[in-house]
Amino acid sequence: MSDVTRAEVAVVACAELFRGDGEILVSPMGLVPSLGARLARATFEPDLLLTDGEAYLMSDGVVEGWQPFRKVLDTVVPHGKRHVVMGANQVDRHGNQNISCIGDHEKPKKQLLGMRGSPGNTINHRTSYWVPRHSRRVFVNEVDVVAGVGFERARQAGAERFHDLHRVVTNLGVLALRPGKIQLLSVHPGVSVDEVVENTTFELDTSEVTESRLPTPEELHLIRTVIDPKGTRDKEF
User: Fold this and answer.
1) Side-chain half-sphere of 116: how many Cα atoms within 13 Å?
2) Into which family does the record put it (predicted)?
3) Which CATH number belongs to the domain containing residue 152 in this structure?
């Protein structure tokens, strides 16, 4: 399968985020994570619950149930039955995430989304991130503003047992979020470990790096003909 694209490898890597999750609500924010969630449900995780982000549980455009966001906050989040994949304008060595602004919060150089749901999304259920352009501007020593809660802040708040940071998938590879040092788990085909290291400000644990897996023939068929026949995944790259 020499014609497999980097975008398709990233879709599979995002699907792998949900392996073993079982019957939980997944909230993938962004195109590639959404495609990955649909791929996981269509293959190895058929019990995943997918939402349109507003009020309905969906499966390939078919409404399967009704679950407004208030109900998510009242009944799903408190019980930890959710896996959210957020974007990140900055991620630091402590696992903190920033989508709020660049620069001083009182007088930012650039205004971004704001805190939105990041603080709540990093407590009491599993949290992963998607970064379409891996660079030193994103992977920084210290985020300018903490939106998503990292390991040290969770520890200081006594919330470690409610804290489950999982993975970061990027256009270069997959990182495991770990207290102390973030680990490079895999690099995508055609990417070297050095390339990831050079595009990350802080030190990575590179002791056990593999190559991100390619899609199986079945997965490739689903991506290209069922899940994303218009090739919108390529726009992320």
Assistant:
1) 17
2) Belongs to the 3-oxoacid CoA-transferase subunit B family.
3) 3.40.1080.10
3-state secondary structure of 46: coil
Single pTM value for the model:
0.91
Instruction: For 118-148, write each residue's pLDDT tens digit.
Output: 888 888 889 999 999 999 999 999 999 999 9
Residue 72 belongs to domain spanning: 6-236
Buried b (16+ CB within 10 A) or exposed e, 6-19: bbbbbbbbbbbbbe
Q: Evaluate whether 167 touches 123 at the Cβ level (below 8 Å).
A: no
Q: Is 1 inside a domain boundary?
A: no
Q: Half-sphere exposure of residue 107, counting CA atoms within 13 Å on the CB side?
A: 0
